[in-house]
Specification:
Radius of gyration: 17 Å
Structural class: mainly alpha
Helix content: 55-70%
Strand order of the largest sheet: 1-2
Number of helices: 10
Strand content: under 5%
Largest sheet: 2 strands, antiparallel
Oligomer: single chain
Shape: globular
Distance between the termini: 44 Å
């Protein structure tokens, strides 16, 4: 197992470990920049998100509570089931953030379409490989939509998003093993989330933190011996930049971030195999994303 460690200068980001797992390929995102897949259960259509919409706010906060409760009761009977549970919850949470930020409804149809496809596939498929790929693709799709929403009108950024999409698609063609496809998706999630959060940090408060995370990402990529290592590197780096996202909208979140990092260290120390470590990466990315979604709803609506 390769060990990746990072301590940020401004905040207490804990060390992370990389890991490994196996699977076979599945479904690929469609040939478009928005990509493929959505949330765990069918989502009822909701209105667009203008500022100060108490009805929508109540709806999305209730949905977040449902996601939290269902994730807590989710299947964790094996490492594979744990990964499916955490990734599915993550897709749904990112969908809440996307719907909240889609203030004029421009992306409403895309968001709901992807969430509906994710939900339908999750309910229909029984094979672990297909369910994992459905969940991973759902996560990627939501990050891609969030990036496209963030950079509406920015031709250069939209081109970067398309290039990331094209590279991700290329890594999922034909008989590509699912673990390789998942690794490519995890990389894309890091690149897209980093792009979003750097733009949010318009005052460059977290430049040093970004620099360290980027260094850690590059170091992790250079020493990765397996596709599973690449998956973990991408997921943990996304977890780390997501901490900056949370801090940017809630500066008082330092204590909860410290707790999350402590949980990563404790869980990683107790992990007895690589599959468990993969689930840890997904678990904590879900948890930080849940907090971002909750604060985004509270502050935006």
């Amino acid at each position: 197992m390769i060990v990746f460690r990072l301590v940020l200068v401004l905040f207490l980001f804990a060390g992370m470990t990389a890991c490994s797992s196996e699977r076979s390929p599945d479904r690929v995102p469609e040939e478009r920049a928005a990509t493929e897949r959505p949330a765990h259960q069918a989502q009822a259509p909701v209105p667009s998100a203008p500022r100060g919409d108490p009805e929508l706010k109540q709806h999305l906060l209730a949905e977040l509570e449902d996601i939290r409760r269902e994730n807590g009761a989710g299947d964790r009977s094996s490492e594979i089931q744990t990964l499916i549970t955490e990734l599915s919850a993550l897709t749904r949470v990112l969908g809440v953030t996307a719907r909240t930020l889609d203030r004029d409804g421009s992306f409403r149809a895309d968001i709901e379409s992807e969430l509906r496809k994710f939900s339908q596939t999750a309910e229909r498929e029984t094979g672990d490989a297909r369910r994992i790929m459905n969940a991973m693709t759902g996560v990627y799709t939501m990050y891609a939509l969030l990036a496209k929403m963030r950079f509406v009108g920015n031709t250069d950024r939209q081109q970067e998003i398309q290039e990331i999409h094209d590279e991700t698609i290329a890594a999922m063609r034909g008989d590509t093993p699912a673990v390789k496809a998942a690794a490519a998706i995890a990389d894309a999630c890091y690149l897209l989330s980093s792009m979003i959060i750097r733009d949010i940090d318009s005052e460059h408060r977290y430049d040093k933190a970004f620099e360290q995370i980027d260094h850690q990402y590059e170091q992790g990529a250079s020493v990765a011996e397996k596709q599973e290592d690449t998956f973990i590197n991408g997921m943990f780096r996304t977890f780390e930049v997501s901490q900056l996202w949370l801090l940017s909208i809630n500066p008082k979140a330092t204590a909860v971030i410290t707790d999350l990092n402590g949980g990563v260290q404790e869980d990683s120390a107790n992990a007895t195999n690589l599959g468990m470590q993969m689930g840890i990466a997904a678990k904590y990315l879900f948890q930080i994303s849940y907090l971002i979604a909750s604060d985004t709803v509270q502050l935006t609506l």
